[in-house]
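Q: I'm writing up a methods section and want to include an example of the input and output format. Could you take the sequence below and give the corresponding predicted C-alpha cells, formatted cleanly so I can copy it straight into the document?
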Amino acid sequence: MKNKGLLIGCSIVVVILIILFFTVSWGISQYNSLVGLNESVNNAWSQVENQYQRRYDLIPNLVNTVKGVAGFEKETYTAVTEARARVGQIQITPELLNDPNAFQMFQAAQDNLSSALSRLLVAVENYPQLKANENFLQLQQQLEGTENRISVERKRFNDSVQTYNTEIKRFPKNVIAGLTGFSEKQYFKAITGAEKAPEVKF
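A: Here is the clean output for your methods example:
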C-alpha cells in the first residue's frame, strides 16, 4: 500500500515536471519569436536610417551648388540648411522606436527637410544655368534615387512594425510580451500631400 502511494506520488511529480518542461519550452519559443520580430523591425529601421543619412550627406553639396548661382533665392537654400541642422540635432537611439513623442519629433524634422528640399528643387526651374550644371544634375539624380529609397524603406519598416505590433497584442504572446518588456513600436505616418516621394525631375 505504501509502495502504491509512493508510485502515485512519483507519477504526479513526473507529470508536473513534464507540464512544467513543456510550459517553459513553449514560453522560450514564444520569447524567441518576439526577439526575431523585434530584430526585423530594428533591421528595417537601420535601412531607413541609412537612406536618411545618405540624404543628409548629399545636402551640403546641393546647397553649395545652388549658392554659387547668381540671384538664387537665399531664403530657399537657408531653409534647407536650417531643416538639415534640426535633423542633425535629434539623437537617434534604439529607444526612439518605443517613444511616441521622440519618434514624432524625428519624423517631423525629416518631413520638414523633405518639404524644404522640394521647395528648393522647384525654385531651380527658374535658373537654366543650374539645369545645365553637370554637378547639380548628378546631385539631383542621387537625391531623387535617395528619396525613392527612403519611401521604399519606410514602407518596409511599417510592414515590419505592423507584424511585430500584431504579434505582441495576440494572446498568448501578449502575456510573454508583457512579462519580458516587448512594447509597441511607432509607425511612420504620411504627411498631408506626401503620398509619394518628392518630385525632383525637370
